Design the sequence.
């Protein structure tokens, strides 16, 4: 029923207003709604083919440039992950390096937030899975493949140090996801488990 309303244009204006106010708490709530909606195939298709989808993505990605709180960033990453189950989204994002940069920055800065690195690595894996275009995009980003391999090695060392239980779990998840990403980038395609 919600897909039959004009909620996308309303959501775009809400996100724009919240970004101008830098109200990341309410922005996170709006993004949570979108990421929950993007969990469904019909909703992803509806959003992707809506005339205002580019505007929506612009606001979502511009929030990644802010000094976002973890809740807002988590919702951005979850939205990107859920939308990336669609091949059309992978095609759309193949021309938007900003989305890849948001994911990669969170992965590279894993020590500041293991949870965000885990979410970003999972989103990157979904984005790369069965997408030669996205694989090529990552490979063309300056040093991305090498930095991902380096980050995977750093995580292996970090996993041997004493961490809190929650952070240790996020580090293991990030390692697992980056292992899948590396396998894809090196030519092999891993089955989504």
Sequence:
């Amino acid at each position: 029923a919600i897909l039959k309303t004009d909620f996308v244009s309303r959501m775009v204006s809400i996100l724009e207003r919240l970004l101008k106010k830098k109200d990341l708490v309410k922005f996170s709530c709006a993004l949570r709604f979108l990421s929950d909606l993007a969990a469904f195939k019909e909703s992803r298709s509806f959003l992707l083919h809506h005339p205002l989808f580019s505007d929506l993505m612009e606001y979502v990605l511009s929030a990644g440039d802010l000094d976002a709180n973890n809740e807002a960033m988590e919702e951005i990453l979850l939205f990107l992950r859920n939308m990336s189950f669609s091949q059309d989204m992978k095609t759309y994002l193949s021309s938007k390096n900003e989305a890849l940069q948001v994911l990669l920055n969170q992965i590279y800065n894993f020590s500041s937030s293991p949870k965000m690195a885990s979410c970003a690595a999972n989103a990157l894996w979904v984005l790369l899975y069965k997408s030669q275009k996205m694989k090529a995009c990552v490979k063309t980003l300056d040093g991305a493949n090498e930095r991902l391999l380096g980050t995977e090695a750093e995580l292996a060392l970090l996993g041997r140090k004493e961490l809190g239980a929650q952070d240790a779990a996020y580090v293991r998840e990030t390692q697992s996801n980056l292992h899948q990403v590396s396998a894809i980038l090196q030519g092999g395609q891993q089955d989504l488990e």
In short: The two ends are 32 Å apart (CA to CA). The mean pLDDT is 85. Residues 73 and 184 are 25 Å apart (CA to CA).
